[in-house]
Design brief:
heterotrimer; A alpha/beta (about 325); B mainly alpha (about 270); C mainly alpha (about 280); B: about 270 residues; mainly alpha; 12 helices; about 80% helix; C: about 280 residues; 9 helices
Chain lengths: ~325, ~270, ~280
């Protein structure tokens, strides 16, 4: 009986490829100033899961990825990747991971795409035949074949990022860390990257992906579960559906208005407003407000307050998105 | 796959990247050959103006040749970590399951093309333009001293590389700072150790640098026509330096990596 | 207005250059850094003299003074040429700011000028420290007779020589930067070539006439030759009738180099834009 419980426990443990236990990280900026980049974060990522870390710039997403990728030590807490302690067994962790940071183009500009990929495959000791096979497969998946013999300093940003992703997949990592992988990319390249991410974990491959992003739609589309991080703290965790359910009792409205003198700070003081975000619409010169209301009745207050300051062009109720969840939790959108 | 094998593959791959890059850049290769000739030529002419014996011109050629290796250690290996950090490659190396020493070794091996060309160019320059004559009676002694000098030098370079894990510009400045003072203290262009006109304090400071013994040994076996018997002291000191520095490099690299991870500076740019 | 804006940009750039050069260390370490390299170069040449003359029996102290002053004057040559030669590479590949500067309404010239001026200022610190420590080591500790009389130095002429030297070296820097702007290959090596040629042919450690014909003819078109001679004449002789011919030649060379520097840099900017290499970089 106890054996079976133990086996069950072990099975559950084995299914977790990443475990983060009460991890904090402090950066000392000067002798007087410290920044708490991660504050007591705990989470786990299961085998075969795409796990998203969602949050604005400076929320602590990259810090967590760097800790898990053995590039940074936590100030407090413990973390495990594939069952190995990232602090005590970094060499074992490195055998099963890879890291791709968006907006970065590592490699050597004076050699070709193929040579760069071959070089990176050698950091994992791949034999030549195996290495070439993987390069062929990855370049096909990422539509890089045409550029395999091009020196990489001649590649466009999008293709360099594809090369970067191919590099991250060259060792077929059990755990892949993707830090803002679609940052600054065109729609087509970003879509292809998302497809590759999804394909990697399907069909019971057992691979896991931890992805950081501040694109809500991206997180919604590709992540099985998401942790929302704000100023180093994890403020919510769940599947996209579970997270959206958190705001199901609240009313979400979109309001299109003209730019208002003195900004939108007055919104926070309106009774019944849980949070709001604003987006400039350069094509129309208008402002789009997303407002999360605790009760539908508060809409009258909002309309009254906004129309007193500027013209309202359009009001519409909308379905909850991850952005609304974030607004409801933090009180404002990503800035 | 065995860890050692992975490291060997990584070192060879890093070397190949550098060789390929070098071959594609003939201007750089030519520069590597020609630039040292200005100071070498200047110092040979200076010795001649002072009426110094012909062997002194040979000393300058030996020193100039070895400067090529010292420069490679400082800029082609240690400071290279700085560039790798700036372009994002260092992060990739540190996420991969390989030793940092393998990457450094790869960089060193990759400079072999430039080094061979540079040495060949300088020796030819000395022989053809300044009639410098080499006097080699014991080629084995030459090979031993040369290999040991390089071993200690490259191990020292690995120790320097560790500084770049923690610092950026400060380490770069230290590299710059080490150029001329080491030229002087190691006696690249004249013998310091055992020279009656050199103050004892300088001779002592000079003895702390492995290159000094390498240069002394090479001068004896390449220019003064001496054999292995006369360079036993240099050989012993170089063996000791090589082992000590190689072991130190292993520990220092590990220590500095850990410290950098603690302070969050391993992948910090724009330092 | 344009002149005012140029001066303001140059001033801020000089300030930035100074910050970049100095903010990595405390003032003492900084001074050490600026002393050690040129001082070690002086020690190398000085000890070649000590060791070579001991072995060769030629202990002409006039020659040592000549060497000493040549090497001191060379401090400017090395530091200004290297800084300006490295400027484009640093801005393009290291800080990746070249592109940003090019899209602003101001030209790159005041930035380059400012950085060169800050290098000139830093080299002045080096130069002064090297003179003091060089004198202590060679004259004080090693007992060599430096034939320099503080009361015979023509300080006005010395300041003029150094100023004109800075002008011609900065203009040379513009030529090097222009070449580097167009080519991504030479970069740092270019300033090494040029400072090497200046060292060998610029009357720094031996008179160029000791070189075989026609090699020494090159020295006549190098501003460094006249700069080194003017500095030496101001310190050793001091008399205006000796100094003036050197200063006249140096002034002429400074004007010529400034004109050539402006033309080369303007042409290079045009060509770099045509070739699309303003923001190109490559490492291996």
């Amino acid at each position: 009986m106890s054996n079976s419980v133990e086996q069950q426990k072990r099975k559950v443990f084995d299914l977790k490829t990443i475990e983060v236990e009460n991890v904090s990280r402090i950066f000392r900026i000067s002798s007087e100033k410290e920044i708490l980049a991660l504050d007591d974060v705990s989470l786990h990522v299961k085998e075969g899961e795409v796990f998203g870390l969602l949050g604005p710039n400076g929320a602590g997403k990259t810090t967590l990825i760097k800790i898990l990728a053995t590039l940074l030590l936590p100030s407090k807490g413990r973390a495990f990747v594939a069952g190995h302690d990232v602090v005590k067994e970094p060499a074992k962790v490195r055998r099963v991971i890879n890291l791709v940071s968006g907006g970065e183009t590592p490699g050597y500009g004076s050699i070709t795409t193929r040579e760069n990929l071959w070089f990176f495959s050698q950091l994992y000791g791949l034999p030549k035949g195996e290495s070439m096979k993987r390069i062929a497969k990855l370049s096909e998946d990422l539509a890089l074949q045409e550029y395999l013999n091009t020196r990489t300093h001649k590649l466009s940003t999008g293709y360099r990022q594809r090369l970067n992703l191919a590099r991250g997949l060259i060792n077929d990592p059990k755990v892949l860390f993707l830090d803002e992988p679609t940052l600054g990319l065109d729609v087509i390249t970003a879509k292809r990257i998302r497809e590759i991410v999804r394909n990697r974990v399907k069909n019971g491959s057992g691979n896991s992906i931890l992805i950081t992003t501040h694109y809500m739609v991206e997180a919604d589309q590709i992540c099985d579960r998401i942790a929302i991080i704000d100023r180093g703290r994890m403020i919510a965790l769940g599947t996209p559906a579970e997270l959206k359910k958190m705001v199901s009792k609240q009313t979400i409205v979109s309001i299109e208005t003209q730019p208002i003198d003195g900004g939108m700070d007055f919104m926070s003081s309106i009774a019944g407003v849980n949070g709001y975000s604003q987006t400039d619409e350069p094509s129309t010169g208008r402002i789009k407000l997303k407002v999360v209301l605790n009760e539908e009745g508060a809409l009258q207050n909002v309309i009254h307050a906004v129309s007193a300051r500027g013209r309202i062009f359009e009001i519409a109720k909308s379905e909850p998105t991850l952005e609304d969840v974030y607004i409801a939790l933090v009180g404002k959108g990503f800035e | 796959m065995h860890e050692f094998q992975v490291n060997v593959r990584a070192a060879i791959a890093r070397a190949r990247v550098r060789i390929k890059g070098t071959i594609q850049d003939p201007a750089w290769m030519i520069a590597e050959m020609i630039i040292p000739m200005f100071s070498i030529g200047g110092f040979i002419l200076l010795y001649r103006a002072l009426g110094a014996p012909a062997s002194y011109s040979g000393f300058v050629i030996v020193g100039g040749t070895m400067i090529a290796f010292w420069t490679n250690v400082l800029w082609g290996m240690a400071a290279q970590f700085y560039w790798e950090k700036e372009v994002g490659n260092l992060e990739i190396y540190f996420v991969a399951p390989i030793s940092r020493m393998a990457i450094l070794l790869g960089m060193a091996l990759g400079s072999i093309v430039t080094m061979v060309l540079r040495v060949f160019g300088i020796v030819l320059f000395g022989i053809l333009l300044f009639n410098v004559s080499l006097n080699i009676v014991d080629p084995i002694a030459v090979a031993i001293i040369f290999t040991l000098t390089l071993a200690s030098l490259y191990s020292l370079g690995m120790v320097f590389s560790s500084l770049y894990l923690l610092w950026g510009r400060e380490a770069w400045k230290l590299n710059e700072l080490l150029v001329e003072p080491i030229y002087f203290l190691s006696g690249f262009f004249f013998q310091i150790r055992g020279n009656v006109v050199v103050p004892l304090v300088l001779q002592f400071a000079s003895s702390l640098i492995p290159m000094t013994f390498g240069l002394d040994g090479l001068r004896k076996v390449l220019i003064l026509g001496q054999g292995l018997q006369s360079v036993l002291l240099e050989v012993s000191v170089l063996i000791a330096f090589s082992i000590a520095l190689f072991v130190a490099a292993h520990y220092v690299l590990g220590y500095m990596e850990n410290l950098a991870k603690k302070e969050g500076r391993l992948t910090l740019r724009w330092q | 207005m344009a002149v005012k804006s140029f001066i303001r940009s140059a001033w801020y750039s000089a300030w930035l250059g100074w910050k970049l050069e100095t903010n990595w260390a405390d003032p003492l370490t900084f001074a050490g850094y600026y002393l050690l390299r040129p001082f070690a170069s002086l020690l190398i040449v000085g000890f070649i003299f000590v060791i070579g003359s001991f072995a060769g029996g030629n202990t002409n102290t006039q020659y040592f003074t000549y060497l000493f002053l040549g090497q001191i004057a060379y401090v400017y040559v090395l530091q200004i040429t290297v800084t300006t030669g490295y400027f484009i590479h640093e801005e393009r590949a290291k800080y990746e700011t070249l592109r940003s500067v090019y899209v602003t309404p101001t030209s790159i010239r005041p930035y380059l000028l400012g950085r060169a001026l800050s290098a000139a200022f830093a080299s002045t610190v080096s130069l002064l420290l090297t003179i003091v420590f060089g004198t202590i080591v060679f004259s004080g500790l090693l007992g060599l007779n430096l034939e320099i009389d503080l009361f015979r130095i023509n300080y006005a002429a010395l300041v003029m020589s150094l100023t004109l030297g800075i002008v011609s070296l900065i203009s040379t820097g513009f030529i090097l930067s222009g070449i580097n702007l167009v080519s991504t290959r030479l970069q740092m090596n270019l300033s090494e070539y040029v400072s090497g040629i200046f060292f060998l042919l610029g009357d720094v450690i031996f008179p160029p006439t000791t070189l075989p014909y026609p090699l020494y003819l090159i020295s006549y078109v190098l501003p460094v030759t006249y700069y080194t001679r003017a500095v030496r004449a101001s310190i050793i002789d001091g008399a205006w009738d000796v100094v003036i011919p050197n200063l006249q030649m140096l002034l002429l060379m400074a004007i010529l180099t400034t004109i050539v520097g402006s033309i080369v840099f303007a042409a290079a900017e045009k060509r770099a834009k045509r070739l699309g290499v303003i923001d190109r970089k490559s490492e291996y």
